[in-house]
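pinned: reference chain
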Amino acid sequence: MRLDKFICKSTELTRTEAKKSLKRGKLKVNGEVITNAATQVHENNHITLNGQELQARSSRYIMMHKPLDTICSNVDEVHPSLLNFVDVDKAFDLHIAGRLDVDTTGLVLITDDGRWSHNIISPKKQCNKIYRVWLRDPVEQSIIQEFKDGVQLQGENSLTKPAELVIVETDNNDYREVLLTITEGKYHQVKRMFAAVRNRVVGLHREQIGEIKLGENLAPGEWRYLTKDEVESIN
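pinned: its structure tokens
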């Protein structure tokens, strides 16, 4: 963890105030004065500020049902940050583990544990993300194998990693609703995958990340803390 972030997690200082304390030489790591805010520190380091030992607060792990027209950012822009919906202390010290587009709804995981979120977003970790997708045109059976083999996205040098596509049986059986499981998180990946097979996404909703499923009782904009088992399922 960055030293300035550690200070914020163990005091009531803002990031700006933490950096000022560092510049004044008020902080020591294992007895040595450190002034670089980007210095990486670990749980077994002895860290003091003005002679007082610091202990970081426990990390937070949150599930949210992202509503439409919100952004996965720590600052408001044209649309509001979904962190406005999280009523906790220092909500803007949190970050989103796997972002969704402004017009996409569903499961978002929020934390201040960088190593945990890395296990979600790193392609090497092969963490499944399941999306419910509504399409402009019916899906042909041949697309299932094409997605399994990998799709060539515009502007990419290599195929996408194998993806699982399941056509959802609906009352009218128009084959325009599917479940898509991917392990990557390329820019606008789901939309670009269907564009590559001459179709268009008209609705997108993330239902699951790894073993963590969006709670059925969570309305758009609502959130809850993850259970211990849910947190430990990401490794």
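why pinned: The domain at 61-123+219-232 is CATH 3.30.70.580 (Alpha-Beta Plaits). The chain has a mean pLDDT of 92.
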